Amino acid sequence: MENLENNVNVMPRIGDKAPAFEAVTTQGKISFPSDFKGKWVILFSHPADFTPVCTSEFMTFGKMAAEYEALNCQLIGLSIDGLYSHIAWLRTIKEKIEYKGMKDIEIKFPLIEDVSMKVAKAYGMVQPGESETQAVRAVFFIDPKGTIRTIIYYPLSLGRNFDEIKRILIGLQTADNFKVALPADWRPGDDVIVPTAGSCGTAKDRMEDKSGELTCYDWFFCTKKLSKEEVEKKLGK
Question: Which domains does the chain have, with CATH numbers?
């Protein structure tokens, strides 16, 4: 709370506890992160209501909302705009905008009013080199214990990759559920990386594995199979 009270620009880091705050949203007041204990949260900022890139993003998040809900993940948006602006913009999206086959999109997840910029500054979403009056496109992945697990920042001019945002969430849950690491471009069903020799026997043990479970490219780089079905059974945890 000290950062919020002193209005200091901070950039929380991966592994930090998510800064706590209370806010008014389009879905009522929230206390964060306590109201969402036990859930994954994607907290994301956008520069402004009634702007085209943000509209395309909110429509995409709205279309995918059920997919995130199935992954036990709460979406929460934020911009440095007032509540009535938020409400009018979301109504316009639902009633007037048709884009890439998306129409009649109703945004049911909370959109935070942050005219004071307190929350945006607590999360390092305001970056003066880009804009002093708008939040950049930040995405914070916060786990059920309230810990920040991944952070992505996009500039004002570039819309987010929503396929990657969902892939990250699935990847974090998979890494936690199976105590593995995930290689470049991993998707459910691909091989996963087993822990290094220091935490899983000796290098010799790994290289001479007879179980047939491991594929070792060298002592430090071994993978094993993990089926898409196994991954999907534990998603949402």
Answer: 2-165 (3.40.30.10), 179-234 (3.30.1020.10)
